[in-house]
Amino acid sequence: MASSLTLHHVTALAGNVQRNLDFYRGIPGFKLVKRTVNFDDPGSYHLYFGAGEGLPGTLLTFFPWATPANPNGRRGVRGAGQIGVVTMRAPIGSDDPPADPDGISIQFAAAESPHLESVTLCEADAAPTIAFLRDILGLEPDGPNRLRLGDGAWIDVQHSPDATRGKMGAGIIHHFALRVADEDAQLAWREKLIRAGVRVSAVRDRLYFHSIYFREPGGVLLEIATDGPGFLIDEPRDRLGARLCLPPWLEPAREGIERRLSQMTL
Ligand code: ZN
Q1: Is the pTM of this model over 0.85?
Q2: How much distance in Å is there from the Cα of 123 to the middle of ligand 1?
Q3: Is residue 90 part of a domain?
Q4: In angstroms, what is the span from residue 59 Cα to ligand 1's centroid?
Q5: Distance from Cα 9 to the centre of ligand 1, integer Å
Q6: Are 181 and 210 in contact (CB under 8 A)?
Q7: Are 11 and 176 in contact (CB under 8 A)?
Q8: Among 77, 112, 150, 222, which residue has the least CB neighbours within 10 Å?
Q9: Residue 211 C-alpha to ligand 1 middle, in angstroms?
Q10: How remote is the CA of residue 127 from the centroid of ligand 1, in Å?
Q11: Ligand 1 geometric centre to CA of 209 (Å)
Q12: What is the tens place of the pLDDT at every residue in 78-136?
C-alpha cells in the first residue's frame, strides 16, 4: 500500500536573490507565490515558487544567502548527510532542461503539470536511513534503495560510504517537507515520532502552513507540513508575490527589515 505521505516542498540555499528570482520565475508553470523573509532569520529573504496559488507538492522555496560582502553567498559543500538530487516535473521542452544558476541540483523533467517527483538522499550508510523511512515513516520499499510516497513520488537512498560530510551553504538543498492534510494528522505524526524516540520540534507557525522538523539517522532535515492555510492568507490570488509579506509578529519591524534586505526587481 502506498503511503499517505507525499512531497510538500523542497527548500534550498541560493546565492543572489535576483538571479534566483529570474530563473525560477522563468520556468514554465511556475511563479513567485510569496516573497517573505526567513522567519528564523529575518535578515534574509524567503522566496516561494510554485504552481497555481502555491499548491503543496509543487513548491520550491529558497533562502538567498548573498550579502553585500559576499554577493554569491557563502558556498556549501555537497556530500553525505544531505539531499543529493531533487526531480521536479514541469511543462518544459524535453531537449534542454533548465539548470539552477547556483548549481542547486534540482533536475527538471518534462510533464504536463508541475509536481515534485523524487528526492535522493546521499548517505554514508544507507541502511539506517532506509530502516527509518520504512519502519517509522511507514514508506513502502520498492527495490533495495527506493521507498514509495503517495501520488507516485519516491525517495531514493544513495549509499555513499566514501563521500565526505556535506556542509550547508549556497548551492545546497536544505531540507524537504512531507505533506499532511491538517493539524490533526501532523500531531499524530509528531506523537508517533516521539514514541519511536525521534527528536521532533514543536509545531512551528510558518503562516502559510504549520511545520514540525526532525532528522533522519543520516542527518538530513525533514519536515512534515500541513496543506493549509495556504498562500492566499495575506495576498489576493492575482497579487501573489507582489509585495514583501511579513508575519504579524515581524510586521512592527518592517522598516528595519526592508532596509537590510538587498533590492530586487519584479
Ligand atoms: Zn520547509
Answers
A1: yes
A2: 20
A3: yes
A4: 10
A5: 6
A6: no
A7: yes
A8: 112
A9: 7
A10: 25
A11: 9
A12: 999 999 999 999 999 988 999 999 999 999 999 999 999 999 999 999 999 999 999 99
DSSP 163: P
Q: Which CATH number characterizes residue 159's domain?
A: 3.10.180.10
Enter the C-alpha cell of residue 27: 520556468
Q: State in Å: Cα 95 to ligand 1 middle.
A: 31
Structural domain including 251 reads 6-260
Cα 116 to Cα 2, 87, 129: the distances in Å are 16, 6, 21
- Cα angle 198, 200, 206 (rounded to 5 degrees) comes to 155
Cell of 202: 514543536
Instruction: Give the distance (Å) from ligand 1 centre to CA of residue 49.
Output: 13
**What is the distance in A from the centroid of ligand 1 to the CA of 92?**
25
Give 42-55 as a 3 state SS string: EEEEEEEEECCCCC
Q: How far apart are CA 235 and CA 134, in angstroms?
A: 39
Cα–chain center distance at 52: 17
266 falls within a domain: no
- Whole-angstrom distance, CA of residue 222 vs CA of residue 189: 13
* Helix (H/G/I), strand (E/B), else coil: 105: coil
Instruction: Give me the residue label for grid cell 524516540.
Output: 197
Distance CA 162, CA 126 (A): 12
